[in-house]
Amino acid sequence: MKKLILAVLILASAKSFSQTTTTSTTPPENQSFIKKIASRLEFGITAGGNYSNFTGANFATDPLPGFHAGLTVSYKFTDNFLVSEEFLYSLQGAKVKAGTFAGQDIKLSYASVPILFKYRTNSGFYVEAGPQASFKVKEDIGGITDAKFAKKIDFAVAGGLGYQSKMGLGIGARYVYGMQKVQETPSPILGDFKNNSIQASIFYVF
Questions:
Q1: Tell me: the pLDDT tens digits for 9-36?
Q2: Beta bridge partners of 139
Q3: In this structure, are residues 142 and 104 in contact, taking their beta carbons and an 8 Å threshold?
Q4: How far apart are CA 91 and CA 39, in angstroms?
Q5: d(C-alpha 121, C-alpha 119), whole Å
Q6: Residue 42 to residues 4, 53, 133, 166: CA-CA distances in angstroms?
Q7: Is the dihedral of CA 58, 60, 62, 66 positive or negative?
Q8: 97 and 62 in contact (C-beta within 8 Å)?
Q9: What is the DSSP letter of 183?
Q10: d(Cα 15, Cα 149) in Å, to the nearest integer?
Q11: Which pLDDT tens digit goes with each residue over 148-173?
């Protein structure tokens, strides 16, 4: 009996969803569960600049300018609290001042996936924090692209703040702190250095 009731409820929900896609006069209280979930989703695009460097390296470095761009999706638990997942292409690394790679740029390109918990005020200002996993796409060390210098996966934590207008356009700033050694093969000469990056973004939420 319980299974039958559940099946009826599922069919009723599916029918309700179908109806809401064909008419705009359906009152909100009759929307299906799926429709309510969809109404809490936010999709967007984002792009901006990176200012990256290594910390803990046994060689002198300067920050490397880079960029990031990608897509975002957020789920609103309430009007103010949400969780966001981003799918970014991000260029990071550092400029080497001394040592084996002196005068060269170490450029590391990643497919980054931050998952950020965000609190957004009614006025549009927000703070965010959460973990990030990055998957190496390619590396370029002074023009050498097959050195296998960096690990395939990089883990970090991120935190930031920003503002989103009511029309969906917004700006944000974020600090990404690496939690894992960058290099594939440990080296006491190079040191156990990690990625760190400051990001500034402009985004639009649909």
A1: 333 344 344 444 444 555 555 568 888 8
A2: 108
A3: yes
A4: 33
A5: 7
A6: 35, 32, 21, 13
A7: negative
A8: yes
A9: B
A10: 55
A11: 889 999 999 999 999 999 999 999 99
Residue with tokens 């029918």: 15
Q: How far is Cα 181 from Cα 54, in angstroms, rounded to an integer?
A: 10
Count of residues in the chain: 206
- DSSP label at residue 124: S
Torsion of CA 140, 141, 146, 148, to 10 degrees: -110
pLDDT score for 27: 55
Q: What pLDDT does residue 29 have?
A: 55
Scan for tokens 């001042």, then name that residue: 97
Q: What integer pLDDT is reported at residue 168 of this predicted model?
A: 96
> Rounded distance, CA 170 to CA 149, Å?
36
Q: Which amino acid is at 164?
A: Q
- DSSP string spanning 21-60? TT-S---GGG--HHHHHHHTEEEEEEEEEEEEEEES-SS-
Q: What is the pLDDT of residues 55-81, one digit of tens each?
A: 999 889 999 999 999 999 999 999 999
